[in-house]
Write a structure and sequence with these properties.
This protein is α+β, with helices and mostly antiparallel strands and 479 residues long. It is built from nine helices and 18 strands. The protein folds into four domains: 93 residues; 161 residues, no CATH class; 70 residues, no CATH class; 120 residues. The protein has a five-stranded antiparallel beta sheet, with no helix packed on it. The chain is flat.
Length: 479
Amino acid sequence: MATTSATSSSSATANLVSTLGGGGGINASQLAEQLATAQYAARLDQITAKTDKISTQISSASTLKNMITSLASSLGDRVRTGDLAATPQIANSTVAQVSKGGATGRGTSTLEVTSLAKAQTLVTPPLGSSTTPVGAGTLTLRFGTVSGGTFTADTASAAVDITIPTGATLDTVAAAINGSGAGITAYVATGTGGAQLVLKGEDGAANGFVLEATESPTEPGLAALAWAPSGDTSRLKAAATDAAFLLDGVARTSKTNTIADAAPGLSLKLTGANPGAPTTISYSDPGSAITSVMQDLTSALNEMVAELNKNTAPETGALSNDPGARALRRQLTTLASTQVMPADANGAPTTLADLGLKTNRDGTFSLDTDRLAATMKRDPVGTGAMFTNGLYGVYATFDKLGRTVSSSSDTFSLGGSIARLTKLQTTLGTQKAAMETKQEDLRQRLVTQYAKLDTRISNSKSTLSFLQQQIDSWNGKSS
């Protein structure tokens, strides 16, 4: 910083001396510029040097922080959807589609589907065409359970009134129902018997419906579209039903065929029935990927250590005295021995050291593959449990570390260092801008002063030239 300041100040001084001693008169504008620059050069150079150093520190701290958060994110991806994910597979794919739920599944499950969830389908009596008038008035949809010849209203679902305008046709009625927001889909189908309105509800027994009509006295006919279970049962083409299935032998129902998190690590989309012939759901074993993951983790940690060593070197490191960098080193030093799983009375693995992670004397890491293999052989289930996206485990540990070092409110974190340095950088920027404003103000004042001086000098030169001419003229006469 001192070298930079001295260089700029010397340059400004040299320009000033050149201007004053050039022998050809004073350049007022240039002199003002150089004087103003010389006045503030050293202080501006100091601010610039500090700002450049802080920018380097922010960049170094951000690099370390991003390395940790990226490592945590990568582990999370591998646990959730990558090679560490325990993905469910079903033996009979015609019964259901299976996918990974929010937790992690283990072992095997059985699934027997006795019936699928269905929606009620209702048709109106056939008319000549879709443009045949049907009358005017109000149609009312009421929701509930249709069973045999009875209807039990669902008190949680409000009835929906649909206004049918004068001159309405089946097309008009279908459009009015679709636009009512009732959750009923309506369309006109023209079959061999004529045009009919088809109404389809949502899946689930409680989503059955009846259709009531209030006719306009001047334009009757709408009552022909009404329907109740006690009426023409041939118009009910499909009844609304819940899905019924047995998962691990437990009888369950669902109003839809899609069941999220039906069991830990398992979501279902039922597609067919298999009564009396249960199918098996099993999970892929992520154990084969654990060795690869631990090797990748060890390499990533060593890259982090190398970056940390470079930035905390006593003489050359940008973060040699940074509290966030020192805190990170302490955290890495104890990482292998940190308990990442709750203590287990049966001796299940609980630390990264149990997975073979080893801290060397120089702060780097290595992987003890023999210890990892022994842990996996002794307790494969416990080892696999360490690689989940739950509250505990390898991913949770690095996720917590990433959030800790990123905290801008913690003075002893990289995030806190970045926040502090960024604030200081802003302050220096404000100081530099203020100083540059003062320099410009000084330049403008000097320009004004030297312009007046230049005018006076010019006037003096003109007077001197006139006197010299007079003297020369007198001398000529005298001779």
